[in-house]
């Protein structure tokens, strides 16, 4: 069994064939998926999808790349939503210093607020950290008492060690399948297994075999096989470890 720890199954790209996508995922052995939100408007749709399909766990949050959608009142709304829904995690939230034109102060304010909510509700946090890993680590340290995952890992080994010390896992997805991702592959080959999670970030970040196309959860098998080869383990071993890790972090759920 495989656990896709980061999959935007509620995205519009899946509206035309979501059931078929889920069927392909289950046929490939992907029996659990964490589905993180990106903005307040999308929370009801995400909840409906996760309620209708066994094996889907929701996370609710405010994504930094959707900053234009967010309002300060959304943090209060998120607190009420978390209290009523009791999801698997808070997120997707975080910092993105790659996209130009985003208000870094506003981004940090929303991130800080969501970290505080994660601590208040004792929920794991699903973190986006593109070109912003040091700032993310600083924010996590400042709030304290947190646990979660930094998804789509692309940082250094030293940054990874700091996150492990803080109780955070790393989400590994399609980028690891590219041979040019040498630093990422080195990290994956030697990192402690208890902090390893597999993800697709579907419909984004497809692996080498689907380069240029829409990503989907069934393609997690390519990530699994690459990670297993890098670590010198069998695919079954990595599948068991990462499934256990994800269930420990996000709860067993349905």
Automatic annotation (TrEMBL):
Query: Can you quote a single GO CC term?
Result: cytosol
CDD domains this protein is in?
A: TatD_DNAse
GO molecular function list: hydrolase activity, acting on ester bonds; metal ion binding
Show the PROSITE patterns listed in the entry: TATD_1, TATD_2, TATD_3
- Which keywords label this protein? Hydrolase, Metal-binding
Query: Binding positions for a divalent metal cation 1?
Result: 6, 8, 92, 201
Highest rank taxon of the organism? Bacteria
Family annotation (InterPro entries): DNase_TatD-rel_CS, Metal_Hydrolase, TatD-like
Instruction: Quote the record's binding site residues for a divalent metal cation 2.
Output: 128, 151
Instruction: Please provide an example of a Pfam family that matches this protein in its UniProt record.
Output: TatD_DNase
Q: Which residues form a coiled coil?
A: none
Name the family the entry cites: Belongs to the metallo-dependent hydrolases superfamily. TatD-type hydrolase family.
User: What name has this protein been given in UniProt?
Assistant: TatD family hydrolase
């Amino acid at each position: 069994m495989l656990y896709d720890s980061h999959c935007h199954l509620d995205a519009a790209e899946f509206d035309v064939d979501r059931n078929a996508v889920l069927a392909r995922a289950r046929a490939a052995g992907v029996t659990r998926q964490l589905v993180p939100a990106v903005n307040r408007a999308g929370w009801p749709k995400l909840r409906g999808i996760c309620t209708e399909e066994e094996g889907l766990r929701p996370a609710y949050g405010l994504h930094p790349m959707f900053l234009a959608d967010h309002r300060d009142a959304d943090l209060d709304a998120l607190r009420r939503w978390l209290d009523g829904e009791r999801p698997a995690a808070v997120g997707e939230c975080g910092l993105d210093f790659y996209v130009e034109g985003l208000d870094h102060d506003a981004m940090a304010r929303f991130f800080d607020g969501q970290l505080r909510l994660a601590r208040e509700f004792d929920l794991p946090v699903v973190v986006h950290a593109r070109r912003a890993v040091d700032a993310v680590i600083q924010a996590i340290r400042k709030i304290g008492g947190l646990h979660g995952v930094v998804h789509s890992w692309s940082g250094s080994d030293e940054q990874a060690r700091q996150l492990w010390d803080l109780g955070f896992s790393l989400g590994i997805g399609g980028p690891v399948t590219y041979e040019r991702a040498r630093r990422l592959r080195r990290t994956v080959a030697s990192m402690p297994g208890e902090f390893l999670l597999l993800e697709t970030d579907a419909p984004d970040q497809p692996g080498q075999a689907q380069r240029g196309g829409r990503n989907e959860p069934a393609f997690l098998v390519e990530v699994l096989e690459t990670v297993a080869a890098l670590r010198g383990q069998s695919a079954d071993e990595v599948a068991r470890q990462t499934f256990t890790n994800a269930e420990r972090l996000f709860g067993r759920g349905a």
